[in-house]
Amino acid sequence: MAKTRVVNIRKETCDVYIGRAGHGKDGYFGNPFRLETTMARGSTLDRYRKYFYHRLGTDDEFRKRIGKLQGKTLGCFCKPNPCHGDIIKEYLDRLTENADEVVIGQIHWKGCAYPVREIDTSNRIFRVSVESLRDEMINDMRNGIYETMEACEEIDGYCTDEELCTLSDAELYKMYC
C-alpha cells in the first residue's frame, strides 16, 4: 500500500481535503482549533492530538472514515508548516505497521460512553479503558457512590486515548495488565 502523505493544496493535488469547511469543501477532517494571531504555528496541535484520539475512541463513523484515508494524499493549507494532518498521518502509519486490528468497544458510565478494548490472552480476557473513565470513577468513589466499586472491577487497566487507539494488544497487555 502507498504511504499516506500530507501536502499543501496550493502546491500539489490531493486525494482528500482535510482542512476546514469553506470554498465548497466539507471540512469533516478539519482541525476545530483555530490559530489565534498571537499563537505560534503548530500551537493548536497538542489540543488537536487529544481531540483526535478521543474521537477515534468514541466515534465509530470517524474511526472508519479516518481508516479509509490510509495510503492517500491528504491536503491542507498548513503544509509544509506543522499541521493536524501530520497527526492523522502518524496514526495511519502506525496502523500500517501494526498488523493487529485494533477493535474498540464501549463501556457506559453515568450516561457517557467510554472506549474500551478487550485483550484475549487465551486464559482470560482483560479489559482496558481510558484514564478519563478511571478519574470519573475515583471521583465517584470519593463521593460515596458505591456501585462504582463493582464497575471498577470490570476494567483491568487504564491508558491514554492515544495508547488505546494505537498500541497492539500485546503492548497494552504488557503495560497495563
Question: What can you see in these coordinates?
Answer:
It comes from Bacteroides uniformis. By secondary structure, this protein is an alpha/beta fold. The protein folds into two domains: 93 residues, no CATH class; 72 residues, no CATH class. Helices cover 38% and strands 19% of the residues. It has seven helices and seven strands, in the order E-E-H-H-E-H-E-E-E-H-H-E-H-H. The protein has a four-stranded mixed β-sheet with strand order 4-5-6-7. It has a three-stranded parallel β-sheet with strand order 1-3-2, with helices on one face. A hairpin with a 4-residue loop joins strand 5 and strand 6. Helix 1 packs across helix 2. The longest helix has 14 residues.
List the keywords.
177 residues, single chain, 2 domains, alpha/beta, 38% helix, 7 helices, globular, 3-stranded parallel β-sheet, 4-stranded mixed β-sheet
